[in-house]
């Protein structure tokens, strides 16, 4: 008979009985510092709405509110074969999307690893040649006997870097992100750079739409679910997209062709990670101020730096350094400053660390002990680990609650009383407690708990997205292709 060994006692996860009073006193201070009340969330949302409006105005504001030139809603009845390419930070993905109508689709895809040096190559043609070669290989694999004569595959390009667009098939790169730094691209339209490489290889494609992943998340999810009104990214960065109406976008007045009316929809890529760059609404702490000051672009992306996955582990690291300097933790390393060398390394802790700490099932947080030995070569005591878990919970909860101010602002602005908001991104998908905390924050803004509603009955639901960077690019291509065939505009007047 197989012996299971002694039965493990039930976990008392969260018990702080053995944590010294001085650490509990410090924890109380951090709890007050990092907790965002329902009242504060409501004030942030009100300011957010005004900033969204400002971004749509002629003068503009911190939030770019970029028109994407997607001026139709997907119906779910779009059909056809479309190629989509998604340029990520480490991989290039090429997808054949078969839109089947009736809100259904099929996909075939391949991933191509980007050589590490391609992101910083001095020759831009190397990047775009690599993309063209990968697409050509994908098509050759799809059609081993050759593409049928005369067949041209419409292509949607997910290029999730800040771009200015005068048409849906253009994209002037404002700045590289995600580790890319290739000269001769910023300030130029990336589409001709890629198209020229397709033409050299006689690849049978026509690039009809360039979008970012947030816009793709919206149209892909809307294709399968007509209740979808927002696309959201909660990952290394953050962003939101929604459909506004032309009459709500003063900065487009007089710049549109006649087939786009005042009542026409326009998908807006908010790029609202830059919300509150003026520091008027968000409850910044000294840790947020340090992160901003030491970032490559101080006083930019204020909202993103408080909620996005890239920064959450750094907040925890800064607090741990502060506790060490106060002689409250890691006492045995005081005579050996070399021992905490890794703790002093910025961004050595990422959001995955917070997730693993919170998911640790053991009462004494043995998994957390192992984690810090691996990451920092440090051994925290059991009480110290319990303090760290509480700090991780506070940091993660603050980020989730602040993150939904963008959702609340858009839904209030557009008077969406009931809808789905489709979310994607590493934080949403992999940070175990993030979705529930986000929903809880949304409920606090709209007072749903006071109304006695249960989470499953909340009128605004955050739902997992469809494949925005693949299916979304294909749906955008389908919508654009349809307009082009009808002779309708897909950009600014004269563009």
UniProtKB/TrEMBL annotation:
<dbReference type="InterPro" id="IPR022673">
    <property type="entry name" value="Hexokinase_C"/>
</dbReference>
<dbReference type="Pfam" id="PF03727">
    <property type="entry name" value="Hexokinase_2"/>
</dbReference>
<feature type="domain" description="Hexokinase C-terminal">
    <location>
        <begin position="229"/>
        <end position="479"/>
    </location>
</feature>
<dbReference type="InterPro" id="IPR022672">
    <property type="entry name" value="Hexokinase_N"/>
</dbReference>
<dbReference type="InterPro" id="IPR019807">
    <property type="entry name" value="Hexokinase_BS"/>
</dbReference>
<dbReference type="GO" id="GO:0005524">
    <property type="term" value="F:ATP binding"/>
</dbReference>
<dbReference type="InterPro" id="IPR001312">
    <property type="entry name" value="Hexokinase"/>
</dbReference>
<dbReference type="GO" id="GO:0008865">
    <property type="term" value="F:fructokinase activity"/>
</dbReference>
<protein>
    <recommendedName>
        <fullName>Phosphotransferase</fullName>
        <ecNumber>2.7.1.-</ecNumber>
    </recommendedName>
</protein>
<comment type="pathway">
    <text>Carbohydrate metabolism; hexose metabolism.</text>
</comment>
<dbReference type="InterPro" id="IPR043129">
    <property type="entry name" value="ATPase_NBD"/>
</dbReference>
<keyword id="KW-0547">Nucleotide-binding</keyword>
<dbReference type="GO" id="GO:0019158">
    <property type="term" value="F:mannokinase activity"/>
</dbReference>
<dbReference type="GO" id="GO:0005536">
    <property type="term" value="F:D-glucose binding"/>
</dbReference>
<feature type="domain" description="Hexokinase N-terminal">
    <location>
        <begin position="27"/>
        <end position="223"/>
    </location>
</feature>
<dbReference type="GO" id="GO:0005829">
    <property type="term" value="C:cytosol"/>
</dbReference>
<dbReference type="GO" id="GO:0006096">
    <property type="term" value="P:glycolytic process"/>
</dbReference>
<comment type="function">
    <text>Catalyzes the phosphorylation of hexose, such as D-glucose and D-fructose, to hexose 6-phosphate (D-glucose 6-phosphate and D-fructose 6-phosphate, respectively). Mediates the initial step of glycolysis by catalyzing phosphorylation of D-glucose to D-glucose 6-phosphate.</text>
</comment>
<keyword id="KW-0324">Glycolysis</keyword>
<keyword id="KW-0808">Transferase</keyword>
<dbReference type="GO" id="GO:0004340">
    <property type="term" value="F:glucokinase activity"/>
</dbReference>
<dbReference type="GO" id="GO:0006013">
    <property type="term" value="P:mannose metabolic process"/>
</dbReference>
<dbReference type="Pfam" id="PF00349">
    <property type="entry name" value="Hexokinase_1"/>
</dbReference>
<keyword id="KW-0067">ATP-binding</keyword>
<keyword id="KW-0418">Kinase</keyword>
<dbReference type="GO" id="GO:0005739">
    <property type="term" value="C:mitochondrion"/>
</dbReference>
<dbReference type="GO" id="GO:0001678">
    <property type="term" value="P:intracellular glucose homeostasis"/>
</dbReference>
<dbReference type="GO" id="GO:0006006">
    <property type="term" value="P:glucose metabolic process"/>
</dbReference>
<comment type="similarity">
    <text>Belongs to the hexokinase family.</text>
</comment>
<comment type="pathway">
    <text>Carbohydrate degradation; glycolysis; D-glyceraldehyde 3-phosphate and glycerone phosphate from D-glucose: step 1/4.</text>
</comment>
């Amino acid at each position: 008979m197989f012996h299971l060994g002694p039965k493990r006692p039930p976990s008392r996860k969260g018990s702080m009985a053995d944590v010294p009073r001085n650490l509990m006193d410090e924890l109380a201070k951090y709890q007050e510092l990092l907790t965002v009340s329902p009242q504060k969330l409501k004030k942030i949302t009100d300011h957010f709405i005004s900033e969204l409006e400002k971004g749509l105005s002629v003068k503009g504001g911190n939030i770019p509110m970029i028109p994407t030139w997607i001026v139709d809603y997907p119906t779910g009845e779009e059909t056809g074969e479309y190629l989509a390419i998604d340029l990520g930070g480490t991989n290039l993905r090429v997808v054949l999307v078969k839109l089947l109508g009736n809100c259904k689709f099929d996909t075939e895809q391949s991933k191509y690893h980007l050589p590490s040096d391609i992101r910083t190559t001095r020759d831009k043609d190397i990047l775009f040649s690599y993309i063209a070669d990968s697409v050509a290989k994908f098509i050759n694999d799809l059609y081993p006997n050759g593409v049928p004569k005369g067949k041209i595959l419409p292509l949607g390009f997910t290029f999730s870097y800040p771009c200015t667009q005068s048409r849906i098939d253009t994209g002037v790169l404002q700045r590289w992100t995600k580790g890319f730094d290739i000269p001769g691209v910023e300030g130029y339209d990336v589409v001709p750079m890629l198209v020229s490489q397709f033409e050299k290889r006689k690849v049978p494609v026509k690039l009809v739409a360039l979008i970012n992943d947030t816009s793709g998340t919206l149209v892909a999810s809307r294709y399968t679910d007509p209740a979808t009104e927002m696309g959201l990214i909660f990952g290394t960065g953050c962003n939101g997209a929604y459909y506004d109406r032309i009459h709500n976008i003063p900065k487009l007045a007089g710049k549109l062709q006649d087939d786009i009316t005042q009542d026409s929809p326009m998908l807006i890529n908010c790029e609202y990670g830059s919300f509150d760059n003026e520091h008027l609404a968000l409850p910044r702490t000294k840790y947020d101020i340090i992160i901003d000051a030491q970032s490559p672009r101080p006083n930019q992306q204020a909202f993103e730096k408080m909620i996005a996955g890239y920064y959450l582990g750094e907040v925890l690291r800064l607090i741990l350094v502060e506790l060490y300097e106060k002689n409250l933790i890691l006492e045995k390393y005081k005579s050996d400053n070399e021992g905490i060398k890794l703790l002093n390394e910025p961004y050595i802790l990422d959001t995955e660390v917070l997730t693993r700490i919170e998911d640790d099932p053991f009462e004494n947080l043995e998994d957390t002990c192992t984690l810090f030995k691996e990451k920092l070569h440090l051994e925290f005591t059991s009480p110290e680990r319990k303090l760290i878990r509480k700090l991780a919970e506070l940091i993660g909860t603050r980020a989730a609650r602040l993150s939904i101010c963008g959702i609340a602002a858009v839904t209030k602005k557009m008077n969406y009383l009931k809808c789905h908001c489709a979310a994607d991104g590493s934080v949403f998908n992999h940070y175990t407690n993030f979705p529930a905390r986000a929903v809880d924050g949304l409920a606090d803004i709209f007072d749903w708990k006071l109304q006695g509603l249960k989470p499953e009955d909340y009128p605004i639901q955050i739902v997992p997205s469809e494949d925005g960077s693949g299916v979304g690019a294909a749906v955008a291509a389908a919508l654009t292709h349809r307009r082009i065939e009808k002779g309708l505009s897909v950009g600014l007047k004269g563009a």
